[in-house]
Amino acid sequence: MRKILFSIILVLLCCTQSLAESSVWRAQKGESVMYLGGTCHLLRQSDFPLPAEFDKAYRDSDSLVFETDIGEFNDLSAQQKLMSKTMYNDGSTVDKHLSPQTYKLLSDYCDANGIPLEALKTFKPSMIVVMIEAVELAKLNVTQEGVDTYFYKLAKRDKKNVEGLETVDEQINFLARMGEGNEDTFVRYTIEDLKSIQQHYESLVGAWKKGDTKRLYDLMVADLQAMPKLYKELLTDRNKKWLPRIETYRKTNQKRFILVGAGHLVGPDGILEILRQRGYKVEKL
Predict the structure, then answer these.
(1) How far from chain centre, in Å, is Cα 143?
(2) Cα distance between residue 121 and residue 198, in whole Å
(3) CA distance 267 to 178
(4) The pLDDT value given to residue 11
(5) Is the pLDDT of residue 18 over 50?
(6) Which is higher by pLDDT, 209 or 90?
(7) 3-state DSSP call for residue 175?
(8) Who's near 231: CB < 8 A, 6+ residues apart?
(9) How far apart are CA 154 and CA 166, in angstroms?
(10) If I label 139, which of 28, 192, 203, 218 is the partner at 20 to 30 A Cα–Cα?
(11) Dist CA 252 CA 231 (whole Å)
Protein backbone atom coordinates (compact mmCIF):
# COMPACT_ATOMS: atom_id res chain seq x y z
CA MET A 1 0.00 0.00 0.00
CA ARG A 2 3.07 2.22 0.05
CA LYS A 3 2.17 4.29 -3.03
CA ILE A 4 -1.60 3.88 -3.05
CA LEU A 5 -2.56 7.46 -2.32
CA PHE A 6 0.00 8.99 -4.66
CA SER A 7 -1.27 6.58 -7.33
CA ILE A 8 -4.74 8.07 -6.88
CA ILE A 9 -3.44 11.55 -7.57
CA LEU A 10 -1.46 10.36 -10.59
CA VAL A 11 -4.56 8.71 -12.04
CA LEU A 12 -6.32 12.06 -11.71
CA LEU A 13 -3.39 14.25 -12.69
CA CYS A 14 -1.56 12.06 -15.18
CA CYS A 15 1.40 13.84 -16.79
CA THR A 16 2.88 13.95 -20.26
CA GLN A 17 6.30 14.73 -21.68
CA SER A 18 7.19 16.48 -24.90
CA LEU A 19 9.20 13.80 -26.69
CA ALA A 20 8.96 11.74 -29.88
CA GLU A 21 7.07 8.83 -28.32
CA SER A 22 3.80 9.40 -26.52
CA SER A 23 0.81 7.62 -25.07
CA VAL A 24 -1.71 8.28 -27.82
CA TRP A 25 -3.53 5.34 -29.41
CA ARG A 26 -5.65 4.82 -32.51
CA ALA A 27 -8.55 2.36 -32.18
CA GLN A 28 -10.33 1.09 -35.29
CA LYS A 29 -13.22 -1.30 -35.85
CA GLY A 30 -14.56 -1.54 -39.36
CA GLU A 31 -14.62 1.97 -40.78
CA SER A 32 -14.85 3.57 -37.32
CA VAL A 33 -11.75 5.31 -35.96
CA MET A 34 -11.15 7.01 -32.62
CA TYR A 35 -8.09 8.28 -30.78
CA LEU A 36 -7.32 7.87 -27.09
CA GLY A 37 -4.81 9.91 -25.12
CA GLY A 38 -3.89 10.75 -21.53
CA THR A 39 -4.66 13.96 -19.69
CA CYS A 40 -3.25 15.87 -16.75
CA HIS A 41 -4.55 18.98 -15.03
CA LEU A 42 -1.10 20.38 -14.29
CA LEU A 43 2.11 20.38 -16.35
CA ARG A 44 5.55 21.92 -16.22
CA GLN A 45 6.36 24.69 -18.65
CA SER A 46 9.06 22.42 -20.06
CA ASP A 47 6.37 19.91 -21.12
CA PHE A 48 5.24 22.24 -23.89
CA PRO A 49 4.94 21.97 -26.80
CA LEU A 50 3.04 18.71 -26.42
CA PRO A 51 4.08 15.64 -28.41
CA ALA A 52 3.25 15.77 -32.09
CA GLU A 53 1.01 12.69 -31.77
CA PHE A 54 -1.46 14.67 -29.65
CA ASP A 55 -1.67 17.39 -32.30
CA LYS A 56 -2.02 14.80 -35.05
CA ALA A 57 -4.95 13.12 -33.27
CA TYR A 58 -6.52 16.52 -32.62
CA ARG A 59 -6.26 17.63 -36.23
CA ASP A 60 -7.78 14.35 -37.48
CA SER A 61 -10.72 14.50 -35.04
CA ASP A 62 -14.09 16.20 -35.39
CA SER A 63 -14.97 16.06 -31.68
CA LEU A 64 -13.12 15.92 -28.38
CA VAL A 65 -14.26 13.85 -25.41
CA PHE A 66 -13.10 14.55 -21.86
CA GLU A 67 -13.94 12.89 -18.56
CA THR A 68 -16.33 15.79 -17.97
CA ASP A 69 -17.14 19.19 -19.48
CA ILE A 70 -14.09 21.24 -18.44
CA GLY A 71 -15.72 24.58 -19.03
CA GLU A 72 -18.67 23.67 -16.82
CA PHE A 73 -16.37 22.16 -14.18
CA ASN A 74 -14.32 25.36 -14.00
CA ASP A 75 -17.42 27.52 -13.73
CA LEU A 76 -17.73 29.39 -10.43
CA SER A 77 -20.94 27.60 -9.46
CA ALA A 78 -19.34 24.17 -9.96
CA GLN A 79 -16.29 25.18 -7.93
CA GLN A 80 -18.56 26.43 -5.15
CA LYS A 81 -20.40 23.12 -5.22
CA LEU A 82 -17.08 21.24 -5.03
CA MET A 83 -16.03 23.29 -2.02
CA SER A 84 -19.37 22.67 -0.34
CA LYS A 85 -19.24 18.91 -0.99
CA THR A 86 -15.69 18.61 0.34
CA MET A 87 -16.36 20.49 3.59
CA TYR A 88 -17.99 19.28 6.78
CA ASN A 89 -21.37 20.94 7.06
CA ASP A 90 -22.28 19.54 10.47
CA GLY A 91 -19.82 21.55 12.54
CA SER A 92 -17.26 18.77 12.44
CA THR A 93 -13.53 19.22 11.70
CA VAL A 94 -10.96 16.91 10.18
CA ASP A 95 -9.21 16.21 13.49
CA LYS A 96 -12.38 14.43 14.64
CA HIS A 97 -12.00 11.95 11.77
CA LEU A 98 -8.30 11.18 12.19
CA SER A 99 -6.32 9.41 14.89
CA PRO A 100 -4.17 11.70 17.07
CA GLN A 101 -1.05 10.23 15.43
CA THR A 102 -2.25 10.93 11.88
CA TYR A 103 -3.50 14.39 12.77
CA LYS A 104 -0.06 15.18 14.20
CA LEU A 105 1.54 14.01 10.95
CA LEU A 106 -0.73 16.37 9.06
CA SER A 107 -0.07 19.21 11.49
CA ASP A 108 3.71 18.72 11.29
CA TYR A 109 3.57 18.68 7.48
CA CYS A 110 1.54 21.89 7.38
CA ASP A 111 3.87 23.61 9.85
CA ALA A 112 6.91 22.63 7.79
CA ASN A 113 5.34 23.99 4.60
CA GLY A 114 3.79 27.18 5.95
CA ILE A 115 0.24 25.92 5.48
CA PRO A 116 -2.31 27.23 8.01
CA LEU A 117 -3.96 23.97 9.07
CA GLU A 118 -6.55 25.86 11.09
CA ALA A 119 -7.94 27.23 7.81
CA LEU A 120 -8.24 23.70 6.39
CA LYS A 121 -9.82 21.94 9.36
CA THR A 122 -13.36 22.15 8.00
CA PHE A 123 -12.33 20.36 4.77
CA LYS A 124 -12.64 16.60 4.38
CA PRO A 125 -9.47 14.56 3.75
CA SER A 126 -10.34 14.29 0.03
CA MET A 127 -9.77 18.02 -0.47
CA ILE A 128 -6.88 18.30 1.99
CA VAL A 129 -5.02 15.51 0.17
CA VAL A 130 -5.51 17.25 -3.20
CA MET A 131 -4.27 20.53 -1.71
CA ILE A 132 -1.08 19.14 -0.18
CA GLU A 133 -0.32 17.12 -3.31
CA ALA A 134 -0.63 20.36 -5.29
CA VAL A 135 1.85 22.01 -2.91
CA GLU A 136 4.42 19.26 -3.58
CA LEU A 137 3.82 19.26 -7.33
CA ALA A 138 4.35 23.03 -7.36
CA LYS A 139 7.80 22.45 -5.83
CA LEU A 140 8.56 20.40 -8.97
CA ASN A 141 7.31 23.29 -11.15
CA VAL A 142 4.20 21.31 -12.08
CA THR A 143 2.06 24.42 -12.22
CA GLN A 144 0.94 24.93 -15.85
CA GLU A 145 -2.49 24.19 -17.30
CA GLY A 146 -2.59 20.62 -18.54
CA VAL A 147 -3.42 18.65 -21.66
CA ASP A 148 -7.16 18.66 -21.16
CA THR A 149 -7.46 22.44 -20.68
CA TYR A 150 -5.06 23.03 -23.58
CA PHE A 151 -7.16 21.00 -26.01
CA TYR A 152 -10.46 22.23 -24.59
CA LYS A 153 -9.43 25.79 -25.42
CA LEU A 154 -8.26 24.74 -28.89
CA ALA A 155 -11.55 22.97 -29.57
CA LYS A 156 -13.54 26.02 -28.51
CA ARG A 157 -11.36 28.25 -30.69
CA ASP A 158 -11.73 25.91 -33.66
CA LYS A 159 -15.45 25.33 -33.00
CA LYS A 160 -15.02 21.58 -32.59
CA ASN A 161 -17.65 19.69 -30.63
CA VAL A 162 -16.81 18.95 -26.98
CA GLU A 163 -18.36 16.15 -24.89
CA GLY A 164 -18.00 14.69 -21.40
CA LEU A 165 -18.14 11.04 -20.39
CA GLU A 166 -19.62 11.91 -17.00
CA THR A 167 -21.49 14.89 -15.63
CA VAL A 168 -19.83 17.57 -13.54
CA ASP A 169 -21.97 16.54 -10.57
CA GLU A 170 -20.78 12.93 -10.93
CA GLN A 171 -17.15 14.01 -10.93
CA ILE A 172 -17.64 16.35 -7.97
CA ASN A 173 -19.35 13.60 -5.98
CA PHE A 174 -16.53 11.18 -6.80
CA LEU A 175 -13.85 13.65 -5.69
CA ALA A 176 -15.75 14.39 -2.49
CA ARG A 177 -16.01 10.68 -1.60
CA MET A 178 -12.32 9.85 -2.00
CA GLY A 179 -11.03 8.18 1.15
CA GLU A 180 -14.48 8.04 2.74
CA GLY A 181 -14.48 5.42 5.49
CA ASN A 182 -10.66 5.19 5.37
CA GLU A 183 -9.79 8.77 6.25
CA ASP A 184 -6.93 7.91 8.58
CA THR A 185 -5.19 5.62 6.09
CA PHE A 186 -5.87 8.04 3.26
CA VAL A 187 -4.11 10.95 4.96
CA ARG A 188 -1.30 8.95 6.58
CA TYR A 189 -0.16 7.21 3.41
CA THR A 190 -0.39 10.42 1.40
CA ILE A 191 1.95 12.25 3.77
CA GLU A 192 4.39 9.32 3.84
CA ASP A 193 4.38 9.09 0.05
CA LEU A 194 5.17 12.80 -0.31
CA LYS A 195 8.72 12.02 0.83
CA SER A 196 9.42 10.28 -2.48
CA ILE A 197 7.15 12.27 -4.77
CA GLN A 198 9.98 13.61 -6.95
CA GLN A 199 11.44 10.16 -7.60
CA HIS A 200 8.03 8.69 -8.31
CA TYR A 201 7.09 11.58 -10.58
CA GLU A 202 10.30 11.28 -12.60
CA SER A 203 9.75 7.51 -12.94
CA LEU A 204 6.30 8.20 -14.30
CA VAL A 205 7.62 10.75 -16.78
CA GLY A 206 10.25 8.23 -17.91
CA ALA A 207 7.58 5.61 -18.52
CA TRP A 208 5.50 8.17 -20.37
CA LYS A 209 8.41 9.07 -22.65
CA LYS A 210 8.61 5.46 -23.77
CA GLY A 211 4.88 4.87 -23.94
CA ASP A 212 5.56 1.96 -21.57
CA THR A 213 2.06 0.76 -20.67
CA LYS A 214 3.31 -1.92 -18.27
CA ARG A 215 5.40 0.57 -16.32
CA LEU A 216 2.55 3.10 -16.32
CA TYR A 217 0.27 0.40 -14.95
CA ASP A 218 2.77 -0.53 -12.24
CA LEU A 219 3.24 3.10 -11.22
CA MET A 220 -0.34 4.30 -11.42
CA VAL A 221 -2.74 1.42 -11.03
CA ALA A 222 -1.31 -1.74 -9.46
CA ASP A 223 -1.06 -0.35 -5.93
CA LEU A 224 -4.71 0.68 -6.01
CA GLN A 225 -5.74 -2.97 -6.21
CA ALA A 226 -4.66 -3.38 -2.59
CA MET A 227 -7.76 -1.29 -1.81
CA PRO A 228 -10.44 -3.10 -3.88
CA LYS A 229 -13.27 -0.67 -3.04
CA LEU A 230 -11.25 2.35 -4.14
CA TYR A 231 -9.93 0.56 -7.24
CA LYS A 232 -13.49 -0.32 -8.22
CA GLU A 233 -14.84 3.19 -7.62
CA LEU A 234 -11.91 5.05 -9.16
CA LEU A 235 -11.28 2.91 -12.24
CA THR A 236 -13.35 -0.14 -13.11
CA ASP A 237 -16.81 1.24 -12.35
CA ARG A 238 -16.13 4.40 -14.31
CA ASN A 239 -14.56 2.50 -17.24
CA LYS A 240 -17.61 0.22 -17.44
CA LYS A 241 -19.91 3.22 -17.38
CA TRP A 242 -17.96 5.05 -20.08
CA LEU A 243 -17.55 2.16 -22.52
CA PRO A 244 -21.15 1.93 -23.79
CA ARG A 245 -21.00 5.61 -24.65
CA ILE A 246 -17.58 5.22 -26.28
CA GLU A 247 -18.95 2.40 -28.43
CA THR A 248 -21.87 4.52 -29.62
CA TYR A 249 -19.33 6.70 -31.37
CA ARG A 250 -19.04 3.94 -34.00
CA LYS A 251 -22.56 4.80 -35.15
CA THR A 252 -21.50 8.25 -36.34
CA ASN A 253 -19.19 9.37 -39.10
CA GLN A 254 -17.23 11.62 -36.76
CA LYS A 255 -13.75 10.86 -35.47
CA ARG A 256 -13.31 11.55 -31.77
CA PHE A 257 -10.25 12.21 -29.64
CA ILE A 258 -10.92 10.80 -26.15
CA LEU A 259 -8.72 12.38 -23.47
CA VAL A 260 -8.83 10.65 -20.07
CA GLY A 261 -6.37 9.84 -17.30
CA ALA A 262 -3.87 7.19 -18.38
CA GLY A 263 -4.87 5.02 -15.43
CA HIS A 264 -8.16 4.43 -17.24
CA LEU A 265 -6.35 3.26 -20.37
CA VAL A 266 -3.70 0.79 -19.21
CA GLY A 267 -3.77 -2.64 -17.58
CA PRO A 268 -6.15 -5.62 -17.85
CA ASP A 269 -9.16 -3.54 -16.79
CA GLY A 270 -8.14 -0.56 -18.90
CA ILE A 271 -10.12 0.82 -21.80
CA LEU A 272 -7.46 -0.12 -24.37
CA GLU A 273 -7.57 -3.82 -23.43
CA ILE A 274 -11.36 -3.91 -23.28
CA LEU A 275 -11.58 -2.38 -26.74
CA ARG A 276 -9.16 -5.02 -28.02
CA GLN A 277 -11.36 -7.73 -26.54
CA ARG A 278 -14.33 -6.22 -28.33
CA GLY A 279 -12.66 -6.48 -31.70
CA TYR A 280 -10.96 -3.12 -32.09
CA LYS A 281 -7.50 -2.85 -33.59
CA VAL A 282 -5.63 -0.73 -31.08
CA GLU A 283 -2.17 0.59 -31.88
CA LYS A 284 0.07 3.39 -30.68
CA LEU A 285 -0.14 6.42 -32.93
Answers:
(1) 15
(2) 27
(3) 22
(4) 53
(5) no
(6) 90
(7) helix
(8) 221, 224, 225
(9) 21
(10) 218
(11) 32
pLDDT tens digit string along 237-279?
A: 999 999 999 999 998 889 999 999 888 998 999 999 999 999 9
DSSP per residue over 115-170, as a string? --HHHHTTB-HHHHHHHHHHHHHHHTT--EE-HHHHHHHHHHHTT-EEEESS-HHH
Report residue 159: phi and psi, to 5°: 60, 35
Question: Do 16 and 147 contact (CB within 8 A), yes or no?
Answer: yes
CA dist 245 and 18 (Å) reads 30
Angle at which helices 4-12 and 213-220 cross, to 10°: 120
Spatial CA neighbour of 246 closest among 262, 236, 259, 233:
259
Residue 49, helix vs strand vs coil = coil
The reply to whether the predicted model has a pTM over 0.85 is: yes
Enumerate the domain spans of the chain.
Answer: 4-284
Per-residue pLDDT tens over the stretch 51-85: 889 999 999 999 999 999 999 998 999 999 999 99
Q: 283: which DSSP letter?
A: E
